[in-house]
Amino acid sequence: MSLKSKPSSTDFHDSSGDVKLKREVGIVGGIAFVVGGMIGSGIFVSPVGILRETESVGMSLIIWLLCGFLGLGGSLCYAELGTMIPKSGGEYAYLLESLGELPAFLFGWTFILIIRPATVAIVCLIMGTYTAEYITQGDCTENDGVAKIFGMLALMTLTFINCYSVKAANQLQIVFTVAKTLLCVVIIAIGFVNIGRGKTEFLNPEESFKDSTPEVFSYALAFYQGLWAYEGWSFLNALTEELENPRRNLPLSLIVGIPFVTMIYLMVNISYFTVITPAEMLASKAVAVTFAQRTMGVFAWIVPLGVCMSTFGAANASLFTAGRLPFVAAREGHMLQILGMVHAKRCTPQPAIMSVSIIAATLIAIGNFDSLLNYFSFAVWLFYGLTVFSLLLMRYTHKDWERPIKVPIFVPILVFIASLYLILAPIVSDPVFEFLYAFLFILSGVVVYFVLVRHKVSLRCMNPITRFFQVLLFVVPTSYNKKDEEEKIQL
Q: Any bridge partners for residue 475, and if so which?
């Protein structure tokens, strides 16, 4: 295998060989990663995009609700997979078990180089934009460079924290989850005060639905915007090996976290419309800032500051989970072996986290929100659909495997159908080049797989390069035993 090198005699294994990820994420941390990973930039950015595509207040609220149902359905499917196959790596581990090496490799290839770096880059870029908005008092259009600088600073800070300590990253996630939830509660409270004062015109069905677009395919783009806000429902599956009692805490965290976020999103959007008209929302660059300026007076600064904290927490959750996939793929021999190593003292997957951060930094430097979102959404729903299909397949190919959670069969079927719509409808409605680029990139992974993995074309430089980075980063291979893990997931 060309991407794999043999550990040298100078490896940093301890005498017991017990170097591996630790189970340091409990139920509170699990819920915090679900809620904190989902509530980030989306609720402060996506309302404008959803309203633009649906063209009515009523349909925009329906899209928010349907996105919540879709996220919950997907998470229940992932809960069954995660408790049946209790490995870190999320979709990669499930595709490897059900469909084999090539689909798993293509997911790892796309995830590491597009999906997760794009997620981290989008959130950091939005945080940088809101920080520039806060500092320059609204002169955001001329400060794209400043926004990217703040995004880079946030990325570097989070990379250091996640490389330094799993526990520190977990505690940071809990703190920022509380902070962002309080911000949403403040917005909701103001909105419901306005409703009590009679500002309910937008709730009249005759008015709120009358301008809804008749274009069926346009709603797919609205779903992309809404599902971006809900992105994070699959994060926890990437941390299965670090969850305490994963067969209990994984599904419980999802079942508690996602309905809570859906309720928050609906109430925040209702609050927005008590103050901002649809036309004004479409003209706003930062809808939460516009809301604050009209309702909070001298305390309006709390909202942009709170949004910065919210996006910082979401970026932390994205980066925390981002480092686990290349780590797991490298253990299977599908990625550079250095990515499958952990720090000898801190037990963090430092090389994997750093690799994702480097790509995310590049995307921040050259990208923008809309193009990154198009790359991300097409690729991620392609693999979400494939993963849910693998669940349906394993209902027949692995009937005898223990399933602590077994969702009704109609749930994965509906999620799979929805994923097909989300993949095909935007291409039909608005065939932008980002979709083609993403598809071609995924196909390029087939060539890489057959050359470097299947036919094991050897790269002689890999051994000295791996040894160099082992010494530089002070990392070692883990004590993970694939055979033992396989025995655990079968009856």
A: 343
